[in-house]
Protein: Bifunctional glutamine synthetase adenylyltransferase/adenylyl-removing enzyme
Organism: Paraglaciecola mesophila
Amino acid sequence: MQNLQQISPFPQALLAIGERHWQALSERDLFETQWQAHKAQLCRVFGLSDFVARQCIQHPRFVGELLALLDHNSQQPNYSALLDAALGEVTSEEQLHKTLRLFRHLHMALITWVDVTNTQTIEESLKRVSALSQALIVHASLWLKNDLSKRFGLPMGNLGEQPMYIIGMGKLGGRELNFSSDIDLIFTYPEQGMTQGGRKSIEHQQFFTKLAQKLITALHQITVDGQVYRVDMRLRPFGESGPLVMHFAAMEDYYQEQGREWERYAMVKGRILNPDATYYPEIADILRPFIYRRYLDYSALDSLRKMKAMIKKEVRRRQLSNNIKLGQGGIREAEFVVQSLQLIRGGREPALQEQGLLHNLQVLIDMEILPEDDANALKNSYLWLRKVEHCLQQFDDKQTQVLPDNDIDELRLVTILGLKDYSQFTEQLLEHTQLIHEQFLLLIGEDAAPELVKDDDILSPLEDLWLLPLAPEEQLEILSAWLDSEQAQTFNTSLVAFGNNLSASRIGQRGENILNKLIPQLLLVILQQTPEAASQSLDRCLQVFRAIYGRTAYLDLLFENQGALKQLVSLCSASPWVTDQISRFPLLLDELLNPAQLVNPTELTEYSAELRLAMLRIDETDLEQQMEALRQFKLCQQLKIAAADITGAMPVMKVSDHLTYLAQSIIRQVVNLAWQQMTEKYGEPDYADAPNEQHDMLSRGFAVIGYGKLGGYELGYGSDLDLVFLHNCTSRAPTDGPKAIESGLFYLKLAQRILHLFNTKTASGQLYEVDMRLRPSGSAGLLVCHIDGFREYQNQTAWTWEHQALTRARFIVGSPSLAQEFSVVRHQILAQKRDRASLQESVAQMREKMRKHLGSSTKLGFDLKQDFGGIADIEFIVQYFVLAYACEFPGLTKWPDNVRILQQLQSSGLLSDEDTQLLNDAYLTYRNTNHRLVLQQAEQAPDATEFSDLRDGVSRIWQQVFVKQE
């Protein structure tokens, strides 16, 4: 690439932009006439970067400083010394914020100047951006720590003053930070204790939490001077729900007991930004064995394959063809190649334990792990993309990796790269991304997908059926090899109708070509798998095809993966509900690629971890994408559960357990997101729970209580969520943020935000329908209730049916202290001594009202929930026994689910073994049938006689409990 000082002529369109910026600069009062000598130079840079122009216009003194710094551009500035001097006169956090931002803008403008004029290499640029970021983070932390120490003293340990070590992750850790990047950080400190030497002594955990919060604010908060960096803390242990800072022992426990493979992968680039000679060796010794195994770690291959599949899936779903980082053959694929080899071999080869990609590429060459030609080609392509990335971001200091969508930025890009035109750029881009993608595909072998049928004798007639204008009798003759005449007629009618509709659609030539090869394959799979229900299967599969025939990526997926095609036919044949889900949300087709994994859902305890990993791939400032990611996660996990259910790989209790644990993980994530959004705007409330490392980020005086099916671990595929929100904030103090509000009002707004995240409809639909009517005073009550108000309402105002609902209520997520308080309140209410005759009458009357309003109106079918002898009868029997006898048998309040309460009733002698077994069998049978009905999109069981014995038994027990005997 040429030095732009030597390029002539400079594009007139860019020169005109530069002139306009120069004119705006010359009109400033602080404009200095000696800058006229540099006008040509400034106009060229201004034409290439609106960011540099804007900084110079806003801060005219930058012009003189930039020109002076350019005279010494042969070496990287000593950012540490310059920041020491700049912060020497700072006496307040407000001044600190301003100084940090202006320092950042000045030196980023300098980096942009030398980058767009090609007077430094991209390698040098990456090092400078990283060094500048490190200096800003470390010096801000030091200033804030000194400031805090004036009040609280300092945390001390066996080796003296304790630091808060700052682990820089990602490209910051690898000293290859991109120009407009956010920064991923993790904070840790040596050991617990109390601070010493201040006016007020506090726990080390509190001290370092305050320091972390202030540092994040100093860097992340947007002021009139902008921001220093967007700070992302999601890579820390436990993610958003984890403490901001952990001491060494807690961090070691986390990584030994709960650390995931993807966290190892991320930590490969983790680097302590402020190492010293005291406690640093200890934290290094904790992290190293987690990241690197002492042998060739081929056990990581499965996890890396999953990560690789996630990358490919994301490219397909988000259509990232114009994204040079995330798209196929982009920067991330190059990083994956190197970091994966580090993870596998780093334990045996200490030279691979450095964080930088370029360093490790050279080590891989020296060790002959990668062929030298391949590695050098990968390096060149990676650096070329990094140069393009810097250009895109330096135009206006925006975090983007998307190629330009306007002529000016295209012109800027080709000018900086020294290319003839944009078409030459796209040619070079294709060459580099193809090379990286080839290395990406070669890295880890994948299980070969089943081959497509290539036997012309089998497939050729079906190709004729689809492609040729055959007479009806010829079409039916082809199908006669699989179907009888009536089946063939119905099957052919559906196929012809699909073809006619397709001819009227604008599918595009490429899509039509793929479809013409794919349809015969689909027909063969259907006819071989389900000839008896071929027409029904065809209709359902074609419903999916109608939804995707304009999206060639999904047609390609099915054509290239015979296993996925067979899985689609199998699932659609089994369930119209699954068919509708895939038709509405074609992204679910990605889940069909691994049939074995599809029918083995996520472990119950892993849903939160899987969701956390999925959310890490989303920009935390992009609320729309976060909401979309939550919905996609739910849809994909639900499909896996349904597939396991359909194939009989999972019993009914497990289906409900999985759906419940899935919902709980999503509720937790939604509350985390809502809390984060609220605190960014309003600051944190004056909550009752003090920050404590044993508690998570939700230890903030807030709790979510689940009722009904969620509370009873009995969620179905279409269940809504019955929720109640509680808090224990008694303070009227304002929040501590830039837009302070009263702390009690904060929790109301938090509840509103949570409901917004659940209820908003995105491209992937609604997350869950949330029902809040079980809160105190129902729809007339506040969205969030103080725990004392909840206790008072339940004691003095609640109806019997509300106490019945409380039997199926449990704490879902939130403050541990509130969880304990709620548990006490729930037990006290349920264990009250009640008049059993009055209770019998009240419960029976409520059941009769429900039956009249909600029961089936026909004798032919059976409404599993509301009809006589159904689910609701069993639930009311159980609820009556809890309310009537918990005062004598406290164990009845222990569980919120009917199956375990029935066991308690049996062990307490309140139900006979025979009646307990009957109610248990009926309850599980009804629930299992209900799952089947949902998957078949049926409202009620069509044959009422099928459940006669169970219904009679439940009705008999109902009579014994609720009908007075003469």
